[in-house]
Backbone:
């Protein structure tokens, strides 16, 4: 008797409801705790001699509570509303083709996430993070009686002087960050889930509770901050902080050497605490809150929904 023929691999369609849900969750994440934590970690990474309290005072001095939301509109909102769609589309395509080549579900998932992360960096996250960092690190011109340029004026000034490269400065570091972020978050979240199942005696067929999902996703997001050095490198490459000793035409390698020589190994980990908090909040929003949102959408539409960050 011949063995049964395996069912052909089908490509999952990318649905509008998936993209809308991903954009909505990302917008919620960045508008609540996401941008304040982003501003704190970026400020600490750019001003590596500041203490945590000094960084908080620096941010407050830029505009009080609104200083913690600098770069939110439009750059963080543009990034949040587009990167989920880019990731979902590219990851879906990459997962389909890697599975067709014989990869396992776990391996295809990690590779798909990493591929999607790189696509995010070059399509939308690169120039958005660059403009957010520019706004956070540029000098406050109003203190000298000069009206600071608007965010779009700043964007156009950089474009006129440096072109596409200027508004995408540090994009290679962003790509490294995104791909390692996604590989880490996926893998570490799954490891934490397995540990929770082992402790609670649950098998793979049993669902984790909402609290267990939050713990697993929070741990995965927080532990993914191991790659903080590449984040500090990214901030330095995009920073508008004045330093005559900084080399011109920075590359990832040159920036690493400059930070290490001026601030040592500690300099490469500046801002890691708020980055851990940010990673935990992002992952909780997109995994734990995402599951609740998906359940609600499924009840309303009767369709299965998949949302990715």
Residues:
């Amino acid at each position: 008797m011949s063995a049964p023929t395996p069912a052909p691999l089908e490509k999952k369609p990318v649905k509008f409801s998936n993209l809308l849900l991903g954009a909505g969750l990302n917008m919620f994440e960045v508008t609540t705790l996401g941008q304040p934590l982003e501003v704190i970690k970026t400020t600490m990474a750019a001003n590596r001699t500041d203490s945590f309290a000094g960084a908080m005072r620096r941010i407050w001095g830029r505009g009080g509570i609104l200083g913690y939301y600098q770069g939110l509109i439009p750059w963080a909102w543009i990034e949040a509303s587009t990167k989920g769609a880019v990731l979902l589309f590219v990851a879906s395509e990459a997962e389909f083709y890697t599975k067709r080549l014989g990869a396992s579900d776990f391996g295809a998932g990690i590779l798909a996430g990493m591929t999607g992360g790189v696509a995010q960096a070059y399509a939308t996250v690169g120039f958005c993070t660059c403009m957010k960092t520019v706004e956070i690190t540029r000098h406050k011109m109003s203190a000298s009686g000069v009206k600071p340029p608007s965010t779009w004026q700043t964007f156009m000034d950089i474009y006129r002087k440096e072109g596409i490269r200027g508004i995408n400065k540090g994009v290679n570091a962003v790509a490294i960050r995104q791909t390692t972020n996604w590989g880490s978050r996926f893998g570490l979240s799954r490891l934490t889930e397995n540990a929770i199942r082992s402790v609670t005696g649950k098998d793979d067929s049993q669902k984790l509770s909402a609290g267990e999902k939050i713990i697993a996703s929070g741990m995965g997001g927080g532990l993914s901050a191991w790659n903080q050095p590449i984040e500090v490198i990214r901030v330095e490459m995009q920073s508008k902080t004045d330093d005559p000793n900084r080399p011109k035409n920075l590359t990832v390698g040159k920036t690493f050497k400059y930070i290490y020589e001026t601030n040592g190994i500690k300099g490469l980990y500046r801002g890691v605490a708020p980055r851990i908090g940010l990673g935990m909040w992002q992952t909780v929003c997109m995994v734990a809150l995402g599951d609740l949102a998906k359940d609600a959408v499924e009840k309303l539409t009767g369709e299965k929904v998949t949302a990715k960050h």
About this structure: Residues 105-137 form the longest helix (33 residues). The two ends are 46 Å apart (CA to CA). Residues 73-195 form one domain. The chain has a mean pLDDT of 81.
